[in-house]
Specification:
This protein is mainly α. The chain has 4 helices and 2 strands. The protein has a single domain (4-84), classed as Orthogonal Bundle (434 Repressor (Amino-terminal Domain)), CATH 1.10.260. The protein has a two-stranded antiparallel sheet. Helix 2 (18-25) crosses helix 3 and helix 2 crosses helix 4. It is globular.
């Protein structure tokens, strides 16, 4: 699960604007805008959410799942090690 603010943050960490994320994910810009406008967990079509998350992942953003090891605890986002990012 990812929230709208987390999605915006992930996009920023990957250095993508909404249009670039839309192109990478195969989604429309309005769909990306709706997802990012969600105050809590992003709602909508599961396939669209999966496409958006996959595009962020391919852009080098790693997500921390609920209960995953994290220095500060909780869920979040982080940039992957440079060796694990696509070139």
């Amino acid at each position: 699960m990812i929230t709208g603010p987390q999605m915006r943050a992930a996009r920023a960490l990957a250095g993508l604007d909404q249009r670039a994320l839309a192109e990478l994910s195969g989604l429309s810009v309005p769909t990306i805008q709706r997802m990012e406008a969600s105050p809590g967990p992003v709602r909508g079509m599961i396939d669209s959410l999966i496409q958006g998350i996959a595009a962020l992942d391919s852009g080098g953003v790693g997500r921390l799942a609920e209960g995953a090891a994290s220095p500060d605890g909780g869920r979040g986002l982080r940039l992957k090690d440079k060796a694990d990012r696509p070139r």
